[in-house]
Amino acid sequence: MRTPRQAARTVVIDPDGAVFLLRSDNDEVGPHWNPPGGGIDPGETPEQGARRELREETGWHDLSPGPLLCTWEHDFTRMGVPVRQSEHIYVTRGPHRGPVGDVSEAHAQDRILDWRWWTPAELADPKAEPLWPPTLAELVTAIQAAWAEGREGIDPVHYGYLPNPPH
């Protein structure tokens, strides 16, 4: 039996279309890349949780989650507890920069190993380490097309459960 867990993340896209991702590690899943985010605290909405997590993991206080991009569920083990995590993924535009200030405690607690900006081509590379969500490359392509047409967002995609790639 898996413990339900609510989480939220924010995909940050720079003016050239690159996406900021964190490299995380998990015993069950292994190294993978994901947008900044994590568990929603009691009393928080998914958007509030995404905003707090973005600040904690990047030190960026000037960005807020924009439109909802997708929702998805997946299984993994967090701190020894098997969970089924339901995630809300938001998107926002932001400058090309690294984390600001000392985010080392948040990174150590969440087993964040590294960060970097990914081009859309790098996201679509089948040889890259796994992405959370696994459909991230397609979602980034869809939001960039919407922005090119003058729209702020896309109709959010609700995937339901998606299995993680094997470790």
Automatic annotation (TrEMBL):
InterPro entries membership: Nudix_hydrolase, NUDIX_hydrolase-like_dom_sf, NUDIX_hydrolase_CS, NUDIX_hydrolase_dom
Record PROSITE patterns: NUDIX (PS51462), NUDIX_BOX (PS00893)
Entry keyword set: Hydrolase, Magnesium
A GO MF label: hydrolase activity
Pfam family membership, one: NUDIX
Coiled coil location: none
Cofactor annotation: Mg(2+)
Region (Disordered): 26-54
Keyword Magnesium: yes
Nudix hydrolase domain residues: 3-140
Family of the protein in this entry: Belongs to the Nudix hydrolase family.
Name by which UniProt lists this protein: NUDIX domain-containing protein
